[in-house]
Write a sequence for this structure.
């Protein structure tokens, strides 16, 4: 169970997140859609403190982090309960595909190398990249890099997976394989918060779709309702534009 | 113009070669010290610890802003007058210390630039998986920065080997000091200094060759 209250982020006079309240149930798959510059990425980045929110409380399980008094140890603990998939993959350039997955298992979770390698190999098999285990990111296609990025997040067994536009930096030829993998992760009822512009994909995997605009949640509901019978005019006009 | 005394020159080669271990030893010791000190200062310059940052900046500014020879004299002839414990300092130690401090200032700047050159996304990815700042720096950022900085650092090492010749002004008999003594005995200055010049040159050429191999190896590793 994740509970976000009053999450606010400003850049100068620009209020990018305006007191966001959001609850996510365990196993729930939540998709965020909305126009560019609306604060979708910022919301994800504030949830794990890649960007520090100005105000707001985040609760994941028994951990509560309040922006007003968050200590470094709490921020670390928060990050250890979340996993992040980046738009531009952000694989560790000095680590092979397998090492990208084992790195945090060893340094953060304290697993032995054998244990971490076994986990990584199982994941590499799962994501169809067992034969690329020893390749460095520079030698992988965009689609392969993003699959490793997702594999790295899967390995963490995090309570919440934060995924920011996983396919929008990809050449069209690689989008399908990444969406397929995301579908499989979603099917396992991994709790996830995904920002995407892939509306068909959102409709398939989401338990709930959130429409954001101007740093606020304008409207949310099950995909059928939000996509087919939006209540707010802004949602409606956004959907008309992206279709 | 007189003819070169080739026999004398050939005879001198093994004599000066005998001092190569001392020259390389001083350079190597100073390189290890300078690398360690420079890495610490570079990391400090990136994360900027209050107060310490000012000290590090001052240090770098001083050691880049004054001649190495002046620094060596300051350590060897000057400091012992102020700090009596240093009275017994020998030339080799003073030279290693001076080279360490001098080159660490330059190397800190290249390492700092290399750290800042590592893409921001690498930091974010490390933070996102829950690594501490120190872990991120040690395991993700520094190794990538080291690859970028390595060729420059080898250049400094080459520079350092040549700079060990200044140690003879502190009374150290290394390659240059030995040559100076030989020349003073034989009065064949041109021959003597030509031999030592060629020997320095040969050492540097060998290192440049190794440097190219290293660069090749480093670029290959990231694109396997
Ligand atoms: N570091 C920053 N400094 C200043 N302004 C920022 C910064 N990061 C984001 N912003 C601003 O915050 C707003 C929201 O940005 P954000 O990236 O969260 O939008 P988004 O909804 O993810 O957009 P997109 O769909 O284009 O990815 C934008 O107006 C952006 O200019
Ligand atoms: Mg975004």
């Amino acid at each position: 169970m994740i509970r976000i209250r009053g999450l606010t982020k400003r850049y100068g006079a620009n209020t990018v997140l305006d007191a966001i309240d959001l609850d996510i149930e365990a196993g729930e798959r939540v998709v965020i859609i909305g126009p560019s510059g609306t604060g979708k990425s910022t919301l994800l980045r504030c949830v794990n403190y890649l960007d520090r929110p100005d105000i707001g409380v985040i609760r994941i399980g028994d951990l509560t982090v309040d922006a007003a008094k968050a200590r470094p140890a709490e921020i670390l603990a928060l990050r250890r309960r979340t996993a992040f998939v980046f738009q531009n993959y952000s694989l560790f350039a000095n680590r092979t595909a397998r090492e990208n997955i084992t790195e945090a298992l060893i340094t953060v979770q304290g697993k032995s190398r054998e244990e971490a390698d076994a986990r990584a190999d199982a994941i590499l098999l799962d994501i169809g990249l067992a034969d690329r285990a020893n390749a460095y990111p520079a030698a992988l296609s965009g689609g392969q890099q993003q699959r490793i990025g997702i594999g790295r997040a899967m390995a963490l067994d995090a309570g919440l997976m934060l995924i920011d536009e996983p396919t929008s930096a990809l050449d069209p030829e690689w989008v399908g394989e990444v969406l397929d993998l995301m579908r499989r992760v979603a099917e396992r009822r991994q709790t996830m918060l995904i920002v995407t512009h892939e509306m068909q994909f959102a409709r398939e995997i989401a338990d709930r779709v959130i429409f954001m605009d101007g740093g606020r949640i304008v409207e949310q509901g099950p995909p059928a309702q939000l996509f087919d019978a939006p209540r707010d005019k802004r949602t409606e006009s956004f959907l008309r534009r992206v279709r | 113009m007189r003819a070169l005394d080739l026999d004398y020159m050939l005879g001198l080669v093994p004599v000066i070669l005998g001092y190569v271990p001392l020259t390389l030893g001083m350079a190597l010791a100073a390189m290890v010290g300078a690398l360690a000190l420079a890495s610490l200062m570079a990391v400090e310059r990136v994360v900027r610890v209050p107060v310490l940052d000012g000290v590090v900046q001052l240090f770098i500014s001083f050691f880049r802003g004054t001649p190495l020879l002046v620094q060596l004299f300051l350590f060897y002839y000057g400091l012992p007058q102020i700090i009596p414990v240093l009275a017994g300092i020998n030339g080799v130690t003073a030279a290693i210390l001076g080279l360490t401090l001098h080159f660490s200032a330059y190397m800190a700047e290249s390492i700092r630039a290399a750290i800042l050159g590592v893409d921001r996304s690498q930091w974010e990815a490390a933070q996102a998986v829950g690594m501490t700042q120190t872990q991120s720096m040690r395991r993700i950022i520094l190794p990538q920065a080291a690859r970028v900085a390595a060729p420059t650092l080898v250049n400094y090492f080459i520079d350092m080997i040549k700079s060990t010749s200044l140690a003879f002004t502190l009374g150290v008999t290394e390659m240059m000091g030995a040559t100076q003594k030989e020349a003073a005995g034989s009065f064949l200055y041109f021959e003597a200094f030509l031999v030592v010049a060629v020997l320095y040159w040969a050492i540097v050429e060998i290192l440049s060759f190794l440097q190219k191999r290293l660069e090749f190896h480093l670029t290959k590793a990231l694109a396997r």
About this structure: DSSP finds nine helices and no strands in chain B. Residues 189-221 of chain B form the longest helix (33 residues).
